[in-house]
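Bench log, entry 3. Co-assembly request; chain sequences pasted below exactly as received.
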Amino acid sequence: MTFEIRDIHKSFAGTEVLKGVSLSLEKGEFIALLGPSGSGKTTLLNIVAGLAHADSGSLVFDGEDITRQPAGQRHFGMVFQSYALFRHMTVAQNIGFGLKVMKGGPSRAEIDRRVAELLEMIELPGLADRFPAQLSGGQRQRVAMARALAIRPRLLLMDEPFSALDAQVRVSLRSEVRALQRRAGVGAIMVTHDRAEADALADRIAIMDQGRIVTIETPEQVA
Amino acid sequence: MARILLILLATLFLALMVVLPVVAIFHRAFAEGWGTYLASILDPETLAAIRLTVIAALIVLPLNIVFGVASAWVIARYRFPGRRALLVLVELPFAVSPIVAGLCFLLIYGAYGPVGAALEPFGVQLMFNLTGIVLVSLFVTCPFVMREILPVLMVTGEDEEKAALTLGANGWQIFRHVVLPNISWGLAYGTVLTMARAMGEFGAVSVVSGAIRGQTMTLPLQIELLYNDYNATGAFAAATVLTGLALVTLALRGLLERFGPRRAH
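Structure output for the full assembly:
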């Protein structure tokens, strides 16, 4: 099971923000896209998610060309920088949303069970009926993670998932996110501009600059 | 001391300019007793006017909601040439005097206007009937719903919609479960304002209604007619109905402002 990004080009208003990006992801692998703002990493993530479309190039998942597949059919879980939790839904409703809107999806009882299981996994079992506004930043981040994992995605996408958190929470959440991803057995692409974050989480780090992947490294060993 | 003086001044002003006239309406309407009041309200022409006003408002309301939500959506979520112009254009009905608006409609959709003349051979008449009343009411109320929703859509941003999209929701599900709950209070508020304006509109409607007694008279027009007929009791009785509707609207508005959730953020 692999995911391949092949020679993606993208321009906005005459400015080329992606100049032929290729990358491949092994099963269960965690890749960090590291680079300064404006390097094109978020655009690349949006194209992978199906929220933006490449001018040329293709995306291939398990041999299937998904370049033109709508976002909803890709079955990729996405964690947004702002978390984008549904503000008028409870934590449980947020996590269960993807299952609820699924065509021929699970029954209500099954959804409840899955939601309870995920709440257990993110260690917030008592907060099912809270609203996002009543949660701390770290809790929101974990709910966003659980919501993305609820649909048992084929790939997990994360856009600066820790940037809205204070430094202490940020570090403690890293290992948690890594553990959740491992447990779900799902490949992940994370956009970040923080080298330490990439080192702590990723199997490989793709360093981007000015619309290109400059090098691909393995993380430096952290003592 | 200055504070007390200012409070007194403000109270006096409100009493003279707002409270007194409203009280006077009811006082005058009931001056000749309940019997006369009821007889005035139950007058077939007045009843017909009430019915027409309510029917017109009930047609305008859903159309306004659909167009208001659609235009707010387009302006909030898409970038396209002419977006700013559209934003200004939607506000135009606020700036144009209703009577001028009515005349414009007559000019275009009337029997001698380009659209009206083109439709006439088919037996379609747009002015001097319910259609005309609905059309001008749509014009004067068109900004209300849109204006209430647009800022909410701008503030909430589109991340939630994107998240729903990646979770597999289709367009309708996104609207139903994500967008609608976010804009519901604004929508309710805009709807109340639209309702009040649609029922109370005089100027624009007076131009296009044709003022056929018992047929194309809306409540505000009927009130003027009765008053000009030296039937002051009848006019004020009818006015209590319109005032009553306005007070209900005001109460609804107050409730919405008070209980509208500020849960977001």
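Residues 24-259 of chain B form a domain with the MetI-like fold fold (CATH 1.10.3720.10). The mean pLDDT of chain B is 91.
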